[in-house]
Amino acid sequence: MTTITYLSKKHEKLNIEKSFLEGKRNLTSKEITILEKNRNYCENWNNVYVSDGKDCFDAELIRDSRFEGFVIIGRLVYAKLKYHDLELDTGIVNSFIRDSIIGDDNVILNVSYMDNYHTGNMVMLFNIQEISCIKSSRFGNGVNRKDISEDTRVWIGIRNENDGRAVLANETMIPADAYIWSKYRDDSVLMHRFLELTDNVCKDKLVSYGSIGNNVVIKNTTLIKDAKIGDCSYIKGAFKLKNLTILSSEDEPSQTGEGVELVNGIMGYGSRVFYQAVGIRFVLGRNCQLKYGARLINSILGDNSTVSCCELLNNLIFPFHEQHHNSSFLIATMVMGQSNIAAGATIGSNHNSRSPDGEIIAGRGFWPGLCSDFKHNSHFASFTLASKGSYQHELDVQYPFALLLPGDTANSPVHIIPAWWFMYDMFAIVRNNYKFKKRDKRVVKIQNIETSPFAPDTMQETLKAVKKIIELTAANLSQLDASYVNENDSPDSLRQSAKDFLHNTKNEKFTLFDVQSQKKHGAIIYKPLKAYKVYRQVLKYFAVKTLMEFCHRNSFVALEEIILSEINLLPLYTEWVNVGGQVMPKKKLEELISLIKEKKINDWEQVHAFYNEVQNNYDDYKARYSVEILEQLYSRSIKEFDNEIYSDIVDDVSNMSELMYNSSVESREKDFTDYYRCMPYDSKEEMTAVLGSVKDNDFLKELERDTKNFKKDLKILFKGLTL
Q: Alpha-carbon distance 45 to 63, whole Å?
């Protein structure tokens, strides 16, 4: 309730921090006379300070305003500030200001209430109802301040609605940080250290006043409370900005627009939030967009993501996420980037009288189709395309690049086509690698992001899928071809027989049944033979491309025995994890955790330095892993490879390279030849005017050039290793 304290009028001079008064002076009696003539009021003008430079303060530029506490005003001379179509005279007009410091050449016009704020230079504040700050604000950071209860920290409940994986935000946080914090919940020592890391990174950045950087424009805004606003920010028509840090710079300016409500969060550099969007307990990455009524609550959204018209609750989302449609819903998930959530997709928890503790984990490239919905808990391998439909049971899709379809009835197996992208939509999967690189508009790239479909994390999944197909084939081999089965077969010999069958059979019509892919009713695996062969080609392509890049990077013309020996001396990592968008060896992540627990890493910036160190060696780690993949595919050491094996590798990789280009061209050409695609146009000329032509496609031009260079290099890559 409202309280009242009766005070006697005293003209005491306030104690003000000396650093605030450098280059400042008290008002002259003449200036006070001018101020009062212009209908300004202050209980004690001795607490108002202005710039001490010659001709740096013009009292005539302050009108119809009230000052309380201390007020420090920088250079104020007649000038005009202009931003787009807004042009205003410098000065302070029709405003109330308390305990604030005003920078040089500011416009403060119709600011009804301003308390405990510091502004930078060339700032425009126009039509603001309230801008204020309490002395204990944390500006969206989860740091604890002295003399404040630990219970007041603002946690972000990502991945789990029960806050079992909640993390604390700080203005340096990236999805990689949130991933490791939310993942290792059983390590109490690590959890305590994360609190210390957060306090360490923030302790020197928290001040007792709100701040507005240089060249900031704020207009027609209702409430700004406990906010830190970076340089070159543009805010127009916002409704509520509270306990917030807006990171912004000249190179990466941030923008906040009409009707926006942002509470308890961090907004990343270069991000834009418009049109009634809401963010509550959130971290918004660099170069992100939140617009058209989108709601981001208890969630962390990675760099280069766009969310509009939808609702996201309790999520950890890695970079390059797209979700644009009004009826889509995402809750209690970890989506590992390069994802696209279609209209009507409802990925949310149905509690069914149980605790709301379910989670969904989706690998890179997750793409659920129109009006699809899923049951918690579910897991999807990388680049899973889920067809439209209601999936009635929990799923564990372990086949990357797969097409998932619902069963014929609610209680029937789902349908999975492994490696579907490479069989039927090569254009889309190949284009992925190109488009994301071009969409990365970050100037400063703190989060390392892997965007290629051919990367250690996806190849790790592909290897597992190959082994899965072999195991399922072995289990059904007696029905598929009894000639490959003997009574006394050991599990190992049976698996070898299954591999022989997959290599030799011409029967492409058989299916397999995978009981693990769906709870209760399993999944029918279609085209397993083709998938097996395509997966092996994909693995070879990755390995060869990586080794080719290793040669280029080290100025080698081709591989030789001595170069292979050098590669084999590199550390071998066979387990990989996607850490917030950065793919790294699992052992390196474990090393990081040990360093944190041992107090050899003591703040999040040091954590980021470790990420960068791993990234610097990433290409070498991949090269060693590539040799390991080839050795697994041929079940022998690379030292034992002969001409026949190298010839087989070159043939498969060459075919894959050609297939990627030719299929991409064919896929695009269909857009110009298919009857139904052509229907909207009366002539070919009209169609060309609207769509352009295949020849004009920049991606296909680039792909053609890259394919030619790749095949040229492929011809000589193994020359030094063959007789």
A: 15
| Contact criterion met (CB below 8 Å) for 546 and 536 | no
Q: Are 225 and 133 in contact (CB under 8 A)?
A: yes
Lookup: tokens for 328: 């889509």
The predicted-structure confidence for 320-366, as pLDDT tens digits, reads as follows 999 988 778 889 999 999 999 998 888 876 566 567 778 999 999 99
Any long-range contacts for 53-60 (C-beta under 8 Å, 24+ apart)? 53/23, 57/31, 59/27, 59/30, 59/31, 59/34, 59/35, 60/34
Of 48, 41, 42, 40, nearest to 21 (Cα)?
A: 48
| Beta-bridge mates of residue 42 | 67
Distance of CA 641 to the CA centre of its chain: 41
The yes-or-no verdict on residue 723 having pLDDT over 60 is no
Location of structure tokens 């083709």: 530
Task: Name which of 156, 163, 162, 462 is nearest 317 in CA terms.
Answer: 156
| Rounded CA separation 295/278 (Å) | 5
**Which amino acid belongs to residue 321?**
H
To the question of pTM greater than 0.85 for the whole model, the response is yes
Is 300 within 8 Å of 268 (Cβ atoms)?
no
Question: Beta strand 107-111 with 360-362: parallel, antiparallel or unpaired?
Answer: unpaired
Helix (H) or strand (E) holding 536: helix 528-553
659: Cβ–Cβ under 8 A, 6 or more apart, which residues? 422, 426
Cβ contacts of residue 63 below 8 Å, gap of 6+?
Answer: 38, 39, 40, 91, 92, 93, 94
Question: Tokens 């450098």 map to which residue?
Answer: 22
DSSP strands (E only) in 123-216: 124-132, 155-156, 167-168, 210-212
Q: What is the DSSP letter of 420?
A: H
Q: So what's the pLDDT on residue 230?
A: 98
The number of residues in the chain equals: 723
pLDDT computed for residue 147 by the predictor: 63
Number of neighbours of residue 89 by Cβ within 10 angstroms: 12
pLDDT at 136 over 90: no
Residues 6+ apart with CB under 8 A from 18: none
Helix (H) or strand (E) holding 677: helix 675-678
DSSP state of 12: P
Q: What's 427-455 look like in SS3?
A: HHHHHHHHHHHHHCCCCCCCCCCCCCCCC
185, 166 Cβ separation under 8 angstroms? no
Which of the residue ranges 21-35, 450-464, 575-589, 695-709 would you say has the lowest mean pLDDT? 695-709
Which of the 8 DSSP states describes residue 518? B
Chain position carrying tokens 């789902």: 414
Phi and psi, residue 143, nearest 5°: -75, 150
Instruction: Strands of 408-564 (E only): list them.
Output: 414-417, 512-514, 523-525
SS3 364: coil
